[in-house]
Amino acid sequence: MPVKKKRRSPFGEDNPIKRSKSSARSNLSESAKSDDAFSTKRCIAWFIEYTEKDDIVGPLGMEKFCEDIGVEPENIIMLVLAWKLEAENMGYFTRQEWLKGMTSLQADNVTKLQNKFDYLRSFLNESVCFKQIYRYAFDFAREKDQRSLDIDTAKSMLALLLGRTWSLFSSFHQFLEQSKYKVINKDQWCNVLEFSRTINMDLSNYDEDGAWPVLLDEFVDWQKQKEKQTQ
Residues 172-192: pLDDT tens digits? Predict the structure, then answer.
């Protein structure tokens, strides 16, 4: 007796419609994976959107870049990003800096960089990393033909870095406003951070015979006089 052949289901393995849909899903999946993967080519194309001349992102390009990522140029996240890119000059990114830094962040477009903002902010909460960023800020912000930081730039950078975390910052800023200082050198800059981390708000643990720079000795004297006048 002949055996009746089993009829294949229209939705079986050999159905061309199923194969087509499966292939389409596979292609979409591969495309999504491709978009998620970091692309050097895409990263460079993104960089070129902001270049003006000499293959560098300058002030105008930086302004557009900040607009695109939704961050004000004065936002501390821009300083952290510059630190991550190892940028040498404030307001400028070279192709090498951009590619090296964005590769480490695995960011080749606006959305991917925005998704890294929390990661970049996290460095500010790590003591060692914050110290690196703080020290980097001095060299980043100073004029490259000068060894010191002009006082106005120093005040702005200190406000950015310490303004929200150092309880005595407001007083220190006032002191700088009325002081004779026109510049701050790197030793003074680094000591301000250590002072902010170790000295109590009431200055009770400040050692006048310690190795603090004259700038901070004068600030302590000024602060004590200020407190006496308010008593």
Answer: 999 999 999 999 999 999 999
Does residue 50 belong to any structural domain of this protein? yes
Which helix (DSSP H) or strand (DSSP E) does residue 184 occupy? strand 183-184
The verdict on pTM exceeding 0.70 is yes
Count structural domains, the chain: 2
- Chain centre to alpha carbon of residue 103: 15
List pLDDT tens digits, range 15-58.
444 444 455 444 444 444 446 899 999 999 999 999 987 899 99
Residue that terminates a domain, selected from 84, 104, 124:
124
Residues 116, 137, single domain; the answer is: no
Structure-token pair, residue 203? 């200055």
Inter-residue contact 141 to 153 (CB < 8 Å): yes
Q: For residue 108, what are the CA distances in angstroms to 37, 44, 45, 78?
A: 9, 8, 9, 17
Closest residue by Cα to residue 84 from 116, 56, 52, 109: 116
Domain containing residue 119: CATH number: 1.10.238.10
Reading phi first (left if > 0) and then psi (alpha if -120 to 50, else beta), residue 38 is in beta
DSSP bridge partners of 94: 56
- At which of 95, 124, 153 does a domain end? 124
Kindly give, in sequence order, each residue whose CB lies less than 8 Å from that of residue 95, ignoring residues fewer than 6 positions away. 44, 47, 55, 56
Is 18 within the bounds of a domain? no
Q: Residue 195 in 3-state DSSP?
A: helix
Asked if 190 and 225 sit in the same domain, the reply is yes
* DSSP character at residue 181: -
Q: Are 98 and 57 in contact (CB under 8 A)?
A: yes
